[in-house]
């Protein structure tokens, strides 16, 4: 029996992303395990059991081992890990939150990560995102569930300079968003006349 190879939904866009200038870099993030946590009682020792204090301030994220913990709502977080399998992450998180009345659901296949870097990244994002991305407002540790173009995304600020962002988009919208980002970055791409 032949083994199936895992391919990334945005593999076909890698060449186009590679042609962008340093001022607007777009790279496809490697696959990471992701689990959504639902938990009412954050203050009841969940942080000690999970190995990270879940952010309680709206629209924030914190480092969590090799991944991140992203606030999605008053009782909902997205946890990621670059070293655990989806099954390992879900099992570990579930074991920690189940005694507290919480739940954990593997959503690893749900979202694709795109890393946007460079001096003009905020200009590209501003073409299709209505939130204020100025670094004084949306600096490292900030996150937002918003629209980018016509796609719902989770946007994370990875730097205080406003030149490094992570966009998490549903896998089914990844191709659309990749095309949209390439189009939005077009004015910052030098043209090559033949």
From TrEMBL:
<protein>
    <submittedName>
        <fullName>Sarcosine oxidase subunit gamma</fullName>
        <ecNumber>1.5.3.1</ecNumber>
    </submittedName>
</protein>
<dbReference type="Pfam" id="PF04268">
    <property type="entry name" value="SoxG"/>
</dbReference>
<dbReference type="InterPro" id="IPR027266">
    <property type="entry name" value="TrmE/GcvT-like"/>
</dbReference>
<dbReference type="InterPro" id="IPR007375">
    <property type="entry name" value="SoxG"/>
</dbReference>
<keyword id="KW-0560">Oxidoreductase</keyword>
<dbReference type="GO" id="GO:0008115">
    <property type="term" value="F:sarcosine oxidase activity"/>
</dbReference>
């Amino acid at each position: 029996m032949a083994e199936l190879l895992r391919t990334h939904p945005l593999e076909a866009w890698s060449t186009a992303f590679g042609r962008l200038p340093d001022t607007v870099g777009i790279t496809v993030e490697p696959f990471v395990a992701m689990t959504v946590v639902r938990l009412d009682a954050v203050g009841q020792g969940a942080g000690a059991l999970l190995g990270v204090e879940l952010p309680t301030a709206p629209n924030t994220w914190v480092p969590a081992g090799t991944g991140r913990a992203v606030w999605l709502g008053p009782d909902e977080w997205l946890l990621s890990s670059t070293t655990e399998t989806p099954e390992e992450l879900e099992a570990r998180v579930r074991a920690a939150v189940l005694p507290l009345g919480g739940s954990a659901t593997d959503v690893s296949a749900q979202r694709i990560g795109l890393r946007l870097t460079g001096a003009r990244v905020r200009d590209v994002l501003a073409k299709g995102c209505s939130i204020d991305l100025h670094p004084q407002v949306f600096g490292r540790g900030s996150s937002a569930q918003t629209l980018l173009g016509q796609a719902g995304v989770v946007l994370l600020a990875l730097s205080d300079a406003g030149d490094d962002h992570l966009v998490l988009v549903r896998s089914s919208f990844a191709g659309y968003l990749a095309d949209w980002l390439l189009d939005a970055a077009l004015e910052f791409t030098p043209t090559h006349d033949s």
